[in-house]
Amino acid sequence: MKAPICEICLKNDILCAGCEAKLKEGKITPADVEVSRKLVKLEEKIPALKDVVIKRVIEARDFYILVVRKEDVGKVIGKKGTTIKKISKELGKNVKVIEENKDVEKTVERLIKPATIKGINILYTKEGEVYRVRVAANLQNNLEIPKNVIESAATLITSKKVEIVFE
Questions:
Q1: Structural domains in the chain?
Q2: Sequential pLDDT tens for the chain (167 residues)
Q3: How much is the pTM?
């Protein structure tokens, strides 16, 4: 398995200088470190995880969002969801898996599922482009992931500023 931290840090309880610097700079998060280490230990029980590349781990209230390559989504979920259930049990939280994707619409759709997007506007501000994603107001309380987490996760995944509005 390839993770946001180096192989040495995956197998030890302390971080090397390089990974420590990434953590301080905000390039990786404590969730990246914690979850990656637990997943490496699971490789023995779940061989399908050996080839998986974890791009990011985002922590949200009572679950984790694993961002992986497109070809790894099926491996992480497993047949009939068996692998993801084992991972969730090991981590002690539910896990949502999404593919790394620079497309704002596809990324937000996966994060807000089963809700749907009404539309996307691109705002051109002094700070740069902002992708304003419009979602039906009646779905605001039905989202599995809080609005602020969706915005930060989508921004991290797509490298574009994303804003969610309910109308």
A1: 7-99 (3.30.300.20), 104-166 (3.30.300.20)
A2: 899 999 898 888 889 999 999 999 988 989 999 999 988 888 888 888 888 999 999 887 788 899 999 999 999 998 888 889 988 998 888 888 999 888 999 999 888 887 889 999 999 999 899 999 999 888 777 788 888 888 988 998 898 999 999 98
A3: 0.83
**HEC-encoded secondary structure of the chain:** CECCCCHHHHCCCCCCHHHHHHHHHCCCCHHHHHHHHHHHHHCCCCHHHHHCEEEEEEEECCEEEEEECHHHHHHHHCHHHHHHHHHHHHHCCEEEEEECCCCHHHHHHHHHCCCCEEEEEEEEECCEEEEEEEECHHHHHHCCCCHHHHHHHHHHHHCCEEEEEEC
